[in-house]
Amino acid sequence: MPRLIILTKGGRIRQVSVSGRLTTIGRNEGNSLIIDSELISRQHAVIDWDGDHYALMDAGSRNGTFVNGLRVDRQKLRNGDMITMGDCEIRFLFDTRELSEADALRLVTIPGTLQALDAAKQPPSSPAAKRFAFA
C-alpha cells in the first residue's frame, strides 16, 4: 500500500497510508489527509487510483500543486515523487516498509536518500540497488 511522508514547515513529520480510490488533501476536516496550513487550500488536491496507477490532481488550489518542482494540474505519480503544496513537502512511496522518523525526515529533505535507503536493503550487485535515483 502506498504511503505519503509529510514534512510541514514547522518540522513535523508523519507517515500516512494511501488507501481507497480517492485520497483528498486539504485543510477541511472532511479530507482524507488534513494539513493545517493557511497555504493549503480547503480542498487542495486529490490522489486518484484508477486500478493501474496513482495520479495527483490539483483541485483548483490557490497556491498550486507541484511534483518534482513542476506545477501540475494532473500528474501520474511514481515511487519517490516529491509533492509540494504550500509550505509542505510530501514524498510519495509505493514501498510498504515503515520508516523510522529519522529515515522519513532524511527521505524528504536530502536528495538521493531514497536511492541510499533502497540500496542498503539490497546486495551491492543487485539491479534493485540501482533502481531509484532522485537527486
TrEMBL record:
Against PROSITE patterns, the record matches this protein to: FHA_DOMAIN
FHA domain: from which residue to which, for each copy? 23-72
Gene3D superfamilies from the UniProt entry: 2.60.200.20
The UniProt entry, under Pfam families, shows: FHA
Which SMART domains does the UniProt entry name for this protein? FHA (SM00240)
Q: Which domain of life is it from?
A: Bacteria
Q: What is the protein's given name?
A: FHA domain-containing protein
